Task: structure prediction
Amino acid sequence: MADTLLKVQDLQAWYGESHILHGVGFEIGRGELVTLLGRNGAGKTTTLRSIMGIVGRRRGSVTFDGRETIGLASDAIARAGIAYCPEERGIFSSLNVEENMLLPPQVKPGGMSVDEIYRLFPNLLERRRSQGTKLSGGEQQMLAIGRILRTGANLLLLDEPTEGLAPVIVQRIGEVIRTLKSRGFTILLVEQNFHFAATVADRHYVMEDGRVVDTMSAAEVAGNIGKLQAYLGV
Result:
C-alpha cells in the first residue's frame, strides 16, 4: 500500500495465560478510515490495546510511520502520535468537561484547540462546567473523542464509539468522524454496528478468533452482504 501509516504483522497478544490474538495482520494508509468488524470476543479491542502496548504481553510487528513500536512502552507509543479512545470512555467523574479536556498532554504539534473541539461538539461547550458524572452517555462519548484531539496524534483508535447511544447521537458521531477524516486524521474504528461502519469507512477488516479472516473495500460491501452477515451473526 502506498504511504502506509500503520502496518501490523503477525501480532500475537496474551492476557496472562490466555492467548487472544493469533497472528493479526493488516495495513492502514495515511488518511484512511478503516474498521475492524467481528462478533464479540473476536479480538478487536485487544488489537487496539496491543497497538497501544497495553496488553499483558505482545509479539509480532506494529510499524507506525515507518517506526517499529512493538518494543516501546505505551507512553512512548502515544508520544509517537497514536491516540486511543476506549469503549469505557474513561471520563474522570470528579473533573468537569473542560478539566477532562485539558488533562491529556499534547504529545506533538498540530492538535486541535479547545475552541475547535467545542465547535465540533457544541454540546460540550454548553456543559463545559458540568462534572463528568452528570453527562449523558452521548456527551461522555463526545468528550472522550474530543479529549484525544488535543494531543496532536494523527492516528485515532476508536473503540465502539456508538455503543448504547441514541440514533440522533450516532448520526452526530458519524458526522464528526467524517469531518476528522476530511481534516487528514487516520482512523482505525472498532464497531459492532456494521450499518454505521459502512457509512464512514474506506475499507473493512473482518476478525474471527483472534485473526483477520477477510477484507473488503467500501465498494465491495454491497456484493458481500450475505458473507458479512454470516461473519457478524446478524
Strands lie at 4-15, 18-29, 33-37, 57-64, 67-68, 82-85, 155-159, 186-190, 203-208, 211-217. The CA atoms of residues 163 and 192 lie 8 Å apart. The first strand starts at residue 4 and ends at 15. The mean pLDDT is 92.
